[in-house]
Amino acid sequence: MTTDTRINSPIAVPAVIIPRVISAKQRGRALRDTWPGILMATPALLGLIAFVAVPFIVAIGLSFFNVQLDSVHPARFFGLTQYQRLFTDPIVSGPFFRALLNNLTFAVVVVPVQTGLALFLAVLLNRKLRGMAVFRTFFFMPVVFPMALVAVIWRLILDRGDQGLLNSVIHFISGGFLGAHDWLGSSATALASVILLSIWQGAGFQMVIILAALQEIPQERYEAAQLDRANAWGQFRHVTVPGIRNTLIFVVLLTTILSFRIYDQVYILIKTAGANADATRTVLFQATQTVFDENNLGQAAAITVVFFIIVVALTLVQRRILRQRSDG
Amino acid sequence: MSTFAPLRRRRSVGIRINSVSNYLVLSVLALVFFAPVYYLVIGSFKPSDKVLAGFAGFLPTDLSFNNYVTVFRSLSSDSTGYFFVFMLNSFVISAVIVLAGLVVNSMAAYSFARLNWKGRDRTFLIVVLLVIIPFESVAVPLLYMMNGSRDTLVVQILPFVANAFSIYLFYTFFLGMSKSIEEAARLDGVGAFGTFVRIVVPNSKPVFATVTILTFLAAWGQFLWPSLTVSDPSVRPLPLEISVFSGQQPVDWGAVFAFGTLLVLPVLILFFVFQRFFVQSVAGSAVKE
């Protein structure tokens, strides 16, 4: 048996699944349940066809058209023009590339920082000490907070006035030397602010995944390392990290995919909190704005298709890395 | 023998110092993680001008329920919408998605895991492939397809009932179950559906709990799809409304925080009651080896 890691994100993006399909023959059952079988699967299948498979095909179709919502004009075939504009027309490609870059920057920062923080927390919590469950609660609690609410809370923490919580903390720490800063409005710190609140909300999620993996490591391996006189760092490097390698790879790639799916916090911060739109827009935000501000459904569909290709590419990379591990 | 004693003592002292620093680091980090939650809750009981007030925003002064009254009062007309309607919308949407999803997805998973029918394995493979398609990538075309039913509760529910990932979770659980009781029931003449309802479902509580929690969390916080399809306040869910409510000038921060507290309260209560299940669901659904 291979030790493929079956992976998926619960709340968010499903990553890759390697199906474990066992044929009827292998199970050696003579019973035939054709009608009950089909009837029981039908409701879910209809739902998946109507709300996943068909819209997915429609997305590809729409991206070849010039089409509006609630428009009197019929849809017009556009060929590859939407894609061509997306990548070459400066008016369209400017904001789109910026959105891609923002997603990329977000991923490059969040992936190592959030995974590192989650690993650090998980290692601290994995010690057999009293009260670890209480601490785990504190770190996991933000995970159940809806992102829309997280954005609203942090908007106030990051308020540009000198009454903003972060500003007053910095004012205090610097002994009054540093004045108020417009965290969300300034192009230099807007994305960093989004990153900060996203890590706060998401770190607990990665933490419990890593913690579960840590608890799977047999205690004997640590004991063996202790007999070899390995210090704490040595044990971490030679027992802990190899023991959770697959999980770490999974968490890293999952976080990368999630980085391309951020939307809620960006929408709220730009729309209601005066966040710097250029510095924080994401690919998904760009897609919905193309629908609402320009009523350009074909263009939005093209952005969606590019978004999907990115996610699938990341998923395949993830699958490949995990496979290599399994085979080796 | 005596040479071992000091060594042992030194080690236990080392461990104690180690534990203390462990607690210390954890405490500092826990404070940082908890601060925004505390800020939200304490702010919801304070006058608006004392919320956005630097460090003083943390102090529990001038506490009252006034903000909660304000939330209900200011959201009580047809143009703004009614608070209890937002709450009810969120509850109805989440409850229907969860309950209908449990029925539909567990049934399908059982069919894939245990029943023999032609084309089953191929169909299941397609379902598994669908897991890769994130909802975000079908949101725009779905908006185009469902344009006629915008501003309804149905449009907010239907796309999320059938869920390929839930089917997958049920499927792996059912595959791991012992078949003997099921087979006995089948030999006694109980049909496939009867066996599922009477024997499989009662023995699958953990996976039902996991799927319930994951689906509820996602449904309760849903924002992207309502932001595309809903503008009418009579069908608006809570997360969308908080973006509207906190976007009005001048912002009444105390009231916004009271609103936020009410928005997260149902999930927090569930979280504290079923905490072990929450953590296990999230961790367990993510990595299955």
Describe the protein's architecture and organization.
The complex is a heterodimer of chains A (328) and B (289). By secondary structure, chain A is mainly α. Chain A contains 15 helices and three strands. Chain A has a two-stranded antiparallel ribbon with strand order 2-3. In chain A, helix 3 (81-88) packs across helix 4 (90-125). The relative contact order of chain A is 0.15. Chain B is an all-alpha fold. In chain B, 69% of the residues lie in helices and 2% in strands. Chain B has helices at 4-43, 66-74, 83-114, 120-130, 136-145, 154-157, 164-176, 180-187, 192-200, 205-221, 224-229, 238-245, 253-273, 275-286; strands spanning 76-77, 81-82, 287-288. In chain B, a hairpin with a 3-residue loop joins strand 1 and strand 2. The longest helix of chain B has 40 residues, at 4-43. Chain B is globular, with a radius of gyration of 25 Å. Mean pLDDT of chain B is 90; it is low at 1-9. Classes of the chains: A mainly alpha (328), B mainly alpha (289). Chains A and B meet through strand 1, helix 2, helix 4, helix 5 and helix 6 of A and helix 1, helix 3, helix 4, helix 5 and helix 7 of B. Strand 1 of chain A pairs antiparallel with strand 3 of chain B.
Shape by Cα distribution of chain B: globular
- Identify the overall geometry of chain A: globular
Order of helices and strands of chain A: EHHEEHHHHHHHHHHHHH
Average residue pLDDT of chain B? 90
Strand order of the largest sheet of chain B: 1-2
Order of helices and strands of chain B: HHEEHHHHHHHHHHHHE
Could you tell me the strand content of chain A as a percent range? Answer: under 5%
* Count of alpha/pi helices of chain B: 14
Task: Specify the oligomeric state.
Answer: heterodimer
Give the strand content of chain B: under 5%
**Largest beta sheet of chain B, briefly?**
2 strands, antiparallel
**Uncertain runs of chain A:** 1-19
Terminal CA distance of chain A reads 13 Å
Strand order across the biggest sheet of chain A? 2-3
Structural class by helix and strand composition of chain A: mainly alpha
- What is the makeup of the main sheet of chain A? 2 strands, antiparallel
Counted by DSSP, the helix tally of chain A is: 15
Structural class of chain B: mainly alpha
Tell me, rounded to a whole number, the average pLDDT of chain A. 87
